[in-house]
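in:
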């Protein structure tokens, strides 16, 4: 079948192994090659193609591609985890539970095949623990441009010139409670979905935006779910194409709107 699966560029791979502990399915291993140790997929059916390992490679050697591959086999994957890294089994189950694939208790006793699918698209619901104040304050929109979608914006738009650029995953605007004040204010933005959009085709466009706009800063905002981390890798790749020396800041937003991680890279 044709499906999404990770691709490891062996010419870039340094064999550091940082991707292995970040793969819940343990689908990656290090092998000896004439060029030294390299990371490779053990078997196609161990890789679910969700990209949990994206964004952790220090040399951006990991990407997602669509090609002919065996379907993901969760039963076989669970057997492999038990064999090669049993300490990762509960991490794998917890990872599934955190993304709504049953409760943590159910995951401890449930059958592995019940947890197929994308962790970032599972149904979740939680009750608000605090009452919303009845004295609501109406805030002003901080949006200063149109359009905002990455596939619609022009790289030569005047609002990008010498701006603080922000590349934002779609869901961030709905989860961040103070999106306009904390994220949008004072920034020129481009919005996309790292999972549903074919973001690889955007690499050249982002590079053109960065190259022609001479930005003051570049920030990437994305969700904590695994399939969202590819946006950072994409922007970093585009910045290299544009030969930009502007540091890239990454901000990870939790599904309940809390800010999880802020990191910067040159």
């Amino acid at each position: 079948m044709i499906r999404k699966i990770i691709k490891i560029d062996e010419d870039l791979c340094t064999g550091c192994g940082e991707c292995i502990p970040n793969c819940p399915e343990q689908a990656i291993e290090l092998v000896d090659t004439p060029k030294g140790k390299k990371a490779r997929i053990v078997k196609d059916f161990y890789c679910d193609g969700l990209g949990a390992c994206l964004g952790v490679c220090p040399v951006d050697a990991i990407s997602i591609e669509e090609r002919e591959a065996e379907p993901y086999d969760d039963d076989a994957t669970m057997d492999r985890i038990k064999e090669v890294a049993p300490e990762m089994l509960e991490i794998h189950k917890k990872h599934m539970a955190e993304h709504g694939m049953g409760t943590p208790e159910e995951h401890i006793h449930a059958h592995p095949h019940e947890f197929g699918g994308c962790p970032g698209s599972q149904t979740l619901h939680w009750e608000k623990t605090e009452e919303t104040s009845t004295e609501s304050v109406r805030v002003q929109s901080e949006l200063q441009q149109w359009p905002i979608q990455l596939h619609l914006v022009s790289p030569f738009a005047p609002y990008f010139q010498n701006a603080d650029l922000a590349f934002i995953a779609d869901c961030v605007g709905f989860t961040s409670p103070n999106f306009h004040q904390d994220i949008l204010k004072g920034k020129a933005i481009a919005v996309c979905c790292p999972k549903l959009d074919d973001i690889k085709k955007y690499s050249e466009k982002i590079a053109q935006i960065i190259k022609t706009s001479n930005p003051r800063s570049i920030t990437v905002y994305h969700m904590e779910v695994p399939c969202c981390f590819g946006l950072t890798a994409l922007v970093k790749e585009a910045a290299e194409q544009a030969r930009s020396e502007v540091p890239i800041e990454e901000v990870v937003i939790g599904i309940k709107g809390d800010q999880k991680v802020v990191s910067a890279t040159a």
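note: The beta strands are 2-8, 28-33, 36-41, 62-68, 164-169, 187-192, 217-223, 248-253, 259-265.
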